[in-house]
Design brief:
2 domains, homodimer, 9-stranded parallel β-sheet, TIM Barrel, D-amino_acid_metab_enzyme (chains A, B), alpha/beta, 10-stranded mixed β-sheet, Alanine racemase (chains A, B), D-serine ammonia-lyase activity (chains A, B)
Amino acid sequence: MILPYPIITAPTLFLDEKKALNNLKKMSEKAKKSHTRLVPHFKTHQSRHIGEWYKEYGVTEITVSSIYAAEYFLPQLWENIHIAFPFNPLEITKLNRLAAEQSISVQLVNAATAGLLADNLLQQVGYFIEIDAGYGRTGVEVSDFGTIEAILRTSLKTNKLKFRGFYIHAGHTYHSSPEEIQAIYHQTTSALTMLKDKYNSEFPDLVIRLGDTPSCSIQQDFAGIDEVGPGNFIFYDLTQAALGSCTKEDIAVALAAPIVDIKKHKNEILVHGGGVHLSKDVLILPNGQKSYGEVVFIHEDGWEILEEPAIVKSISQEHGVLQAPKAIIDRVHLGELIGILPVHSCMTADCMGGYMNLKGEKVDHFKGQNSFYRNL
Amino acid sequence: MILPYPIITAPTLFLDEKKALNNLKKMSEKAKKSHTRLVPHFKTHQSRHIGEWYKEYGVTEITVSSIYAAEYFLPQLWENIHIAFPFNPLEITKLNRLAAEQSISVQLVNAATAGLLADNLLQQVGYFIEIDAGYGRTGVEVSDFGTIEAILRTSLKTNKLKFRGFYIHAGHTYHSSPEEIQAIYHQTTSALTMLKDKYNSEFPDLVIRLGDTPSCSIQQDFAGIDEVGPGNFIFYDLTQAALGSCTKEDIAVALAAPIVDIKKHKNEILVHGGGVHLSKDVLILPNGQKSYGEVVFIHEDGWEILEEPAIVKSISQEHGVLQAPKAIIDRVHLGELIGILPVHSCMTADCMGGYMNLKGEKVDHFKGQNSFYRNL
């Protein structure tokens, strides 16, 4: 419980770069072994500094979830940036401007938007058709050939829209057991393979891509899938650990939160670290309890996962209440920093808008736009 | 469903200034009638522009929840800024620097932190003792006179710490019926009055303050309470409407979200508007359904609350899925903006980091540091 960086006085998101790099190495090697291309999603880290690492693993194309994030990564000169969100017709002008500088692909889920692009594009852009194979959030239902055909035919009216392939984000893996995740993976790959077989003769270059971290982590072999696009795996989090995608040791970010009160008789520690830092994402533990994070001890060279877990039992805007066994309560003091592994690292990173690595260096995040910790 | 501001192409937080000003007027008049001072909490709007309005209603002192927010409001020359969060010992240097320029009060919940301040303060600061009268989040338990005495005696060792009074945030009103809120209000005021009676002879200037919006909204008379410090009332939100603190018409902010897909056969609308915009705060409806927001139609002069409500039934990082009756589905089109009333306006404002008023002007928020919409 030594303060590693006396400069830190406020909630700060620590990044263990070694852990993140190891997560990247493992995912990259698994993809290579299957002859599957890794086109990672950058929605989790949203960082140029972290983005650079992927180049060393042969990554040349990336995925983001908004046109603003695509702009942020423009200076990194990627061969293509895919915006994996149903295209927003209001952003056509912005897309034309961006596509003049950068190879872009968009995502389509209906023919109306395909028509709008066909009529208004000034630059060539690629597109994926997003398929819903059971998640139910977004995408063309896998059996809805009417819509798939309508998108393809509408796009063929122009040479500005180039069909790239089919994309599935099987987000329902986030509510599943490892066995169910395997079953969803097989369902997803069957759907994609069926579509590839159906359209391959007309579009010989089409690829099939799937995107969720649980599938990509639990599945050991991506044979038959052209591209995988996971994002969360770079950091992982408690949700992924609970799903079996990773161990808690793999989690690469932890919020350092100042201890402001200790209630020994209630086994509670109060920290400055609430919903504006961690987000309000919650994990339901096997015993039915709600967890907003898990306590770790911060040391100079990283953090220590505790044998007997202590959790963030409640949070409000700025407050976090930790429920901790006596052994932990006895080790902590007012005015120290305590670490919290996040339930959902993408959201925590977005709330914080920046990181600090274990050398004490600042790491950028799109939301903080290099300003790092707007409030520090 | 006319687009009021063609410039808006991305999720944007609309602020209806008339509604907010009306909320402020009502709270201010109620406080004046009871001869109670309004010391509003600025954690909800976190805006200098909005902060200025309070001056016209006689407000001279304000409340914030972090030392960084106190710094943000420094240029507005308030007579005092109260930091309503248990003082974080790591911020002693920052506090000394801030208190050299601005009258500050802090919040204490244990004697150890009082001792640290007594030993290290270079400037005089005021302090409130935060009391826990049943909420269980933070504060000295109301019956714990040992801790109260220890804080008071420790502070008397220095002339730098000036006792201001007792503060209660009765956050458990957020899980209560209007009748229970009244009961909590009476319990809170009894606790504060008891403490005032006990310590008034020794500290004749001490005040008692309570802070939660549900109590301050539902209670019609603050007789006997010196100061009230609500924050959320300036905007209100769906949680407050469900509690009976306000009507949905009083809610002063709505997220404008671009429609990117419409699934008529499923009665669903997909928007760009997710957890990074609204936050993941959730409201459990009387029928047990989860709501992440309620749909409104945006017009040039504000928004229209729908007779038959439509809700945001699920959100992920960037996606919002609206479940809408046929009458609503038939009125919307791809590429339009639709409005969403937030479940928790403080968190939504913090996610967005800026507002746009109905004249199309940008309004600052601390988190966006005047830059307004970092991604626009």
